[in-house]
Write the structure tokens for this entry.
Amino acid sequence: MNRMIHAVAVTLLAVILALGGCAAEKEENTVTEKSQQSTEKPDYEHAHAVDHEWSAIYNLPAGTYTLELGPVRETPSLTLLFLKEIPERRAEQDHLALHLRGRRSIKVAKGESFRIRDRGLYELAPESRKTKFFFDVTEGARYIIYAEHDVSIRIMDGRTVVKNEK
């Protein structure tokens, strides 16, 4: 119980800090204990210059995975964002993801390996045909993966395809 309360408190603090840069939300959408008890949901519908064209949820226990991108055209790079899922906060996480997109990303070349982390932003350099990357998960969780372009992603745990919940 204490771990859950701690995790919620840390997540709320992170959301408040991340949303602090968005002037339209400073007063309206600050997550407080009082607003958590309210039945009204905050408005996260203000406009952003960039939106996500693709997202999916993957259950990723600790381990090593292969990320296979389908053919990617008309873009030299594809940025993926990994966020640990908090089901009761999905709308806020989708909004937070938009704010995190402007941050510095880790560049990953074809065939390279990277370690994912919560709020990790990775710029992959796919080819026009299928491209494989490898990543390690040290803290297993359900992750929401966001992409700025509609993309075909397949994650493999050895020879097993990890199913997503789009």
Q: What stands out?
A: The first strand starts at residue 54 and ends at 60. Residues 12-50 have pLDDT under 50 and may be disordered. DSSP finds three helices and eleven strands in the chain. Residues 52-166 form one domain.
